[in-house]
Design a protein that fits this description.
279 residues; alpha/beta; Cytidine Deaminase, domain 2; 2 domains; six-stranded mixed β-sheet; 7 helices; 23% helix
Length: 279
């Protein structure tokens, strides 16, 4: 059976410098809404790339502070399977593959997380609800990483971006262990979703996060730094720049933040003590 991919084919017109138009087929990323129910309440609608729905839901619940710890998750259930046929609409009703149900221990739910609010999470930005920002924890000390190892992670992320090479328009995130081995990678229309997917992969498999490096293809905004802090990731990197608020947040939360990780170069914005040089 051929592997299902979250890409759809559309007819386009290619235009060259001589203004000649040629009709051909192009691949596009399949962006769809995913409704997330937590203990019977719909708490979010995520615009995402189809695939890794359970990982996305688990990662989102933890990175957004809705559930306090991975141990608080009891069940993560995707309500449908498989990719649609080209041009097919999403399936209606509770059987839709565009819905995930999460059951968590009641005592693990964050009482300040406003579970009565449905968050609309778009691909190009962060949270669109008016929930007050929750207090963020400080990342624990201890784990250190070789600067030489970190400089080689960008090429590993690029090698994992299979769908981006085919269709473009996608972000990627990956987690690496302390010696630079790839633990998990994911692609999505939103950089927040891509990070939640790799985190959820680890959470559902009981893989610890406190000794991992997160690497993203998009900018490091406040939301990305906040997710890393809630998850206990000690080091978050990107191939591009962070915002000023992301750096301020990382500084307070004891999170090492690295940007412009390209080739053998990178820029460390705060908490460089986790990075060793010349060892």
């Amino acid at each position: 059976m051929a592997e299902e991919r979250p890409l759809v084919e559309r007819e386009v017109l290619r235009m060259a410098s001589d203004c000649c138009m040629e009709r051909e087929d192009a691949l596009l990323a399949l962006e769809e809404p995913l409704a997330l129910d937590l203990n019977g309440r719909q708490v979010a609608v995520l615009m995402r790339l189809a695939g890794m729905e359970k990982e996305l839901a688990a990662g989102f619940c933890l990175s957004e502070g809705l559930v306090a710890t991975p141990e608080g998750l009891l069940l993560v259930e995707h309500c449908g399977q498989g990719m649609p046929a080209p041009g097919d609409p999403p399936e209606p009703g509770d059987g839709s593959r565009n819905r995930v149900r999460v059951r968590a221990r009641p005592e693990s739910l964050n009482p300040d997380a406003r579970l009565d609010v449905t968050r609309l999470i778009r691909a190009g930005c962060g949270r669109s609800d008016d929930v007050v920002t929750l207090d963020l924890p400080a990342v624990s000390e201890g784990q250190r990483f070789s600067g030489e190892m970190l400089q080689g992670l960008g090429s590993k992320l690029r090698a994992a971006q299979h769908l981006h090479r085919e269709a473009g328009g996608l972000h990627a995130a990956a987690l690496f262990n302390a010696v630079g081995d790839l633990v998990c990678s994911a692609e999505d229309v939103g950089r927040h979703n891509a990070l939640d997917k790799v985190v959820g992969h680890c959470v559902l498999r009981r893989i610890p996060l406190d000794d991992k490096v997160g690497l993203c293809s998009g900018r490091l905004s406040y939301e990305m730094a906040a997710k890393a802090a809630r998850l206990g990731l000690p080091l978050l990197m990107s191939v591009t720049a962070p915002t000023a608020l992301a750096v301020d947040t990382a500084e307070v939360c004891n999170l090492t933040l690295v940007g412009y990780a390209r080739g053998r170069r990178m820029t460390v914005y705060c908490h460089s003590e986790r990075i060793t040089v010349g060892d």
